[in-house]
Each structure stands twice: as C-alpha cells, then as structure tokens.
Amino acid sequence: MTEDTPTEILDATHSALCDHGYAELTMQDIADQTDLCKASIHYHYDGKHDLLLAYLDHLYEQFEDRLSAPADEGRHADDPAARLRSLITSLLTERSDAPAFQTALLEIKAQSPYDEAFREQLRRFDEAFEARIREVIADGVADGTFSDDVDPDAVASFLTTHVNGIQTRHVGVGHPLEDAVHAVDEYLEATLDIDIDTTAGSIAPAASVEAGRQD
Amino acid sequence: MTEDTPTEILDATHSALCDHGYAELTMQDIADQTDLCKASIHYHYDGKHDLLLAYLDHLYEQFEDRLSAPADEGRHADDPAARLRSLITSLLTERSDAPAFQTALLEIKAQSPYDEAFREQLRRFDEAFEARIREVIADGVADGTFSDDVDPDAVASFLTTHVNGIQTRHVGVGHPLEDAVHAVDEYLEATLDIDIDTTAGSIAPAASVEAGRQD
C-alpha cells in the first residue's frame, strides 16, 4: 500500500463509473481497475456510497482548480467574453471520456433527491459554477465589454440552468454539443451585446454517448 | 381480468415509479399498486423493460394530447406568447406528483445511452415538444406578435434544451421552479420582443423534490 493508494482508488472510481455507470457499479468493478483487492478498498472506504462521496469531493477540487484557472486564461485573460465562453465549453467537452462521465453524473443527479450527501456535493458544483460565471460577467460589465443593462446574477443563473440542459439533452437524446454551444453563442451575443470569438474554447467532433458500457 | 387491465397496470407503473424510482422498481412494486398478482402483470408484459416501454408509449400519447390542446387553449387561443408560456409551464408543473415523476424521468434519461428503445421513446418527446414550440413561435412571427428577426427553429431548440436544464437542476440541486420560469419569461420578452402575460400558466408553490421515496 503506497501513499498514493487513495488517489489510485479515486481514479479507478472514475474509470469504473465511466465503464459501468453509477447504478451498476460495484466495489469489485473499482478494484478491477487497480492492483488492489476489494478488501484493500474497504480498508479506505466503508462502501460504495462512502467512496462515491470521496470521489465527488476529489472531483470538486479539480473542478474548482479549473474554474479559477482555465487552460487558456493566459490567452484570454483580458477578454471577459472569451473567458465566459471558455468556462462553458470546457465544462461540456474537456475530457475525452466526457460522454460516459456525463451519463454517470446524470445518474447521480437523479439519485440526489433521495440522498442528502450527494445533494450537498452537487450543490457545491452548481454554486461554484454559477458564482464563477457571475464573476466573469460582472468583470465584463465593469470594464465595458458587456452592456450596462446586464444583470450578472440573472444571466449566471440562466446559463447554469442552460448548461444542465445541454448535458441532459446530450445524454438523453444525443442532441449535438456543437449545436448547443452555437446556440449559447447566439444567446451570449444577444444578451451581453457582444461578438463572440468562437476560437475561445472549441468543440471537439461529436462525441457519441451511444457507445455501450463495458459490462 | 377486465378490459381496463392494461390501463390499470400503466397507471400503477406511474405510481410505482414515483414511489420507488426507476432503478429500484420491481414488477412486485407495480403489482402492489393494483388488485392483480405479479403473474397477471407478466401475462401482459414480458418484464420491467417491456412494461416501461409500454408506459412511455402511454405517456407519449397523453403528452401529445396536451401539446395539441393545452388546458387554457380557449382563453389564450389568439395569443401566441401566452400559448408558448403555457406550454412551458405546464410541462414543468402540471402534475401534483411532478417532483417524483421528474426524478424518475431523469433516471430514465440517464439510462438512455445504453438502451436504444428508451432513447427512441425519449426522442419522440423531445421532437414533439420542440416541434410544438417551433409552431407556436412561427404563428407569433406570422401574425406580428413576435419580432420578424426571430428564428423559430433556433428559439425552439434553445427552449427545449433550457427546459431540460430546468428539470435537471430542480431534481439535482432543488433549484426553485418559480425562479427558473421567471428567467424564461425574461428570456422570452428579450428574444421575442414582447411583454409576457404571467397569468398564462402559473407556477404552484415550490414542490419539493427532497421528500424521501416510500421504500
């Protein structure tokens, strides 16, 4: 057992979630993604629920890092519109395993009404994303990039809701991410009274969410 | 066994889904909501998956009826803005069991990437809703209620995505439906260049999605 065991287990949880989904996930599936036996994983985590909460906590730390320092912050540091678009597109498309991951995340969201601990974790993601969007919009209003009429609270909440919709519609019926992001560009242009630089955060070729699970 | 047995079973499926969610649902849970034994239900449906598909089919018929004749069609027949708002709010709030039902529906959406039959059913709902929204917007552009600049295809797709987001965010983190509908009103007013009659489709007091399942 090394110092890195918890990280190895959390990485294995991510892979196992992408492969099996949340409902079907077992501790054995997670052990199968590591060199550890199931008992070693139980040594660190009481069970699937406990491990999933630790995984969401780990994910939240990564999410916070991404929100505070987008990959292209340097290139777009002075352009609130590009930062805003980059925040939205990176959430939708960053990971190569995004479709499977988005699907597992939707399963967890559907469990949240019955699981207060999951719900608290999901609220942290929701609030952090909305707060970051609000901050970037407020910056853009302050420096004159966006119209004075823009209400950062209202637009941040609307965008947070809309991004939930993009993820759900993509998972549920395969609505293309490219079309959804194009529609967000049009919304931002109209609402903030700007021209969007569509090179700030590009959308990868349609990632399919129809690929079967590995179980 | 009466002529109404299939309808009784489908109604029982709805109640059982709201009580137990999709993942936990068993044929026995459905039988418990009827005077029938589990074997009688198996006589009509091969299993849970087959029954769920029949249920989604039944739900789609009701959905189509609602889309083509909203409850307040008479009152708002000549007002495309009110019809549009009524379509959106009725989808979000019509049923008294809406929170539990929305949660079960989100579970089914999360299964859809692994289940082509579910996905086909969900696509019918998605397409029917988007088409109806598009039609009402096109009517409003044609009769001069909405601005000539409005693209019915683009706005209908954006609203369909957004309604997915309202449902998901409500289930996942308890974001209030009233706030979400208010934000849609502001979007419609800005995009269609209209004043919204907020009496067209009212939002009931916050329905909680935090109530525990009955299992």
TrEMBL record, chains A, B:
Regions recorded as binding DNA: 26-45
Pfam families, per database record: TetR_C_6, TetR_N
GO molecular function, one term: transcription cis-regulatory region binding
Cited InterPro entries: BetI_C, Homeodomain-like_sf, HTH-type_TetR-like_transc_reg, HTH_TetR, Tet_transcr_reg_TetR-rel_C_sf
Domain HTH tetR-type: 3-63
UniProt keyword terms in alphabetical order: DNA-binding, Repressor, Transcription, Transcription regulation
Xref: SUPFAM superfamilies: Homeodomain-like, Tetracyclin repressor-like, C-terminal domain
PROSITE patterns, per the entry: HTH_TETR_2
Native source species: Halobellus clavatus
Protein name in the entry: Transcriptional regulator, TetR family
